[in-house]
Design a protein that fits this description.
This protein folds into two domains: about 260 residues, Thaumatin (Sandwich); about 110 residues, Metal Transport, Frataxin, Chain A (2-Layer Sandwich). Helix 2 runs antiparallel to helix 7. The strands form five sheets. Strands 6-5-4-1-9-10-21 form a seven-stranded antiparallel beta sheet, with no helix packed on it. Strands 2-3-22-12-13 form a five-stranded mixed beta sheet, with no helix packed on it. Strands 19-18-17-16-20 form a five-stranded mixed beta sheet. By secondary structure, the chain is of the alpha+beta class. Strand 5 and strand 6 form a beta hairpin. It is built from seven helices and 22 strands. The relative contact order is 0.16. It is globular, with a radius of gyration of 21 Å.
Length: about 400
């Protein structure tokens, strides 16, 4: 969730044993920026068997104010620093059948939602940004499949994407009805992809199977992203160390060339390792930024030792390095980014979580780590003048 374009989070919380989501629908827009709202319709597949709730929370781009959208369409501001939102900040729409819809307006901060069966989650309101429900560790959300959707709506249009940056849980896809009336979508799994992913992850040695979280009855809830796996002790903190050592050894005597902007092929930076530091120079030979040797958590999270500020030098270089490490093509390909998906994840030491997610996507696209959009490999759709946005909650089986 580290993309600078982020405006809002739409969180769907399934209740009960997951076989399919029920319908929940909201609409969402930043009226202060766009002057209008557009529908965001969340629908289930025909065979709905469980109830679900959906909460839309966001930050208004024009003011930075956080809040949430209620079922009537009002944008309700939150209280920064509050540990919980006010009681029942939104009345989530829910149903047992396909086709039920409702609408709401632009949200502006984290919030919680309560289902008809009493299950709920809540998020902390802060001055620093949106805080997601911590389903990794905290009840009640830990006991239910939770998935997050990201989007931005502003004067330039809408960008909406599915994401597995924090976890792989409830299957869903996103879509947009474009200005010409056509619809585009992404994020659907292959047939059998949900079970296929968990089967593959369970079979991956080295601690990767420990990312899977289940209920006491064995029901699968989610797989944690590897950074959260390191945080929780499920995955060894040194899981990427061998690959990092090989990258470091190579570029102590060779040059890593980074061309971070596809539309600026003449903007290049040149990396060489000296001791515990990789220095990057510009075409004039001046050092523009330097990176310490990254640990596994920095790689999986694209932060800490691979921090990517929203600038025009360090950030673009860092995101390129992050993609090269996660995809394990940095050691073999001295010109980055190397956008050949068939060459991604081929090393024995790689982000196997991301590898297995991409392998199960119908179009191969996913946000399995923060900068999976390097080379346009992310599950994103956008349009400059959208008529409507969609989230489709797919069956688990």
């Amino acid at each position: 969730m580290r993309k600078t374009r982020l405006l809002a989070l739409v969180t769907a919380l399934a209740v009960g044993v997951p076989t399919a989501f029920a319908v929940a629908t909201t609409t969402n827009a930043d009226a202060a920026v766009t002057g209008s709202t557009i529908p965001l319709t969340i629908t289930n597949t025909p065979a709905a068997a469980t109830r679900s709730t959906s909460t839309t929370s966001a930050t208004l781009l024009a003011t930075g104010q956080q809040g949430w959208a209620d079922a009537a369409g009002a944008s309700t501001p939150g209280r920064p620093g509050a540990t919980r939102p006010p009681r029942r900040p939104t009345r989530p729409s829910w149903a047992r059948r396909t086709g039920t819809t409702s609408r709401s307006g632009c949200p502006s901060s984290p919030a919680g939602s309560t289902s008809r069966t009493g299950r709920s989650w809540s998020s902390k309101l802060t001055t620093g940004g949106l805080v997601q429900p911590r389903c990794r560790t905290e009840r009640p959300e830990r006991e239910h499949p939770v998935q997050l959707v990201e989007y931005t709506l502003n004067n330039d249009g809408i960008w909406i994407n599915s994401t597995q940056v924090d976890m792989f849980s409830a299957p869903y896809a996103v879509g947009v009805k474009k200005s010409d009336g056509s619809t585009i979508s992404t994020g659907h799994l292959k047939s059998g992809g949900y079970n296929g992913f968990f089967t593959a992850l369970r079979g991956q040695p080295g601690g990767w199977a420990n990312l899977i979280q289940t209920r006491s009855d064995g029901t699968i809830l989610r797989a944690l992203a590897p950074g959260h796996g390191i945080e929780s002790g499920a995955l060894p903190a040194t899981v990427m160390s061998d690959y990092v050592n090989r990258v470091w050894a190579k570029y102590a005597s060779a040059t890593l060339t980074v061309t971070p902007f596809a539309d600026q092929p003449n903007t290049k930076y040149y990396g060489r390792v000296s001791g515990n530091v990789m220095n990057f120079t510009n075409s004039a030979g001046a050092v523009v930024t330097s990176f310490q040797k990254p640990d596994s958590d920095s790689i999986f999270g694209c932060y800490k030792l691979l921090d990517a500020p929203n600038d025009l030098v360090r950030g673009p270089i860092s995101r390129t390095l992050c993609a090269g490490y996660n995809r394990s093509d940095a050691a073999d390909q001295p010109s980055q980014p190397y956008n050949v998906p068939s060459a991604f994840y081929q090393d024995a030491v790689t982000n196997h979580y991301a590898r297995k997610i991409h392998a199960q996507m119908a179009d191969g696209k996913a946000y399995a780590f923060a900068f999976d959009d390097v080379g346009a490999n992310e599950s994103l759709v956008n349009d400059g003048k959208p008529q409507q946005a969609y989230i489709t909650l797919d069956p688990f089986s």
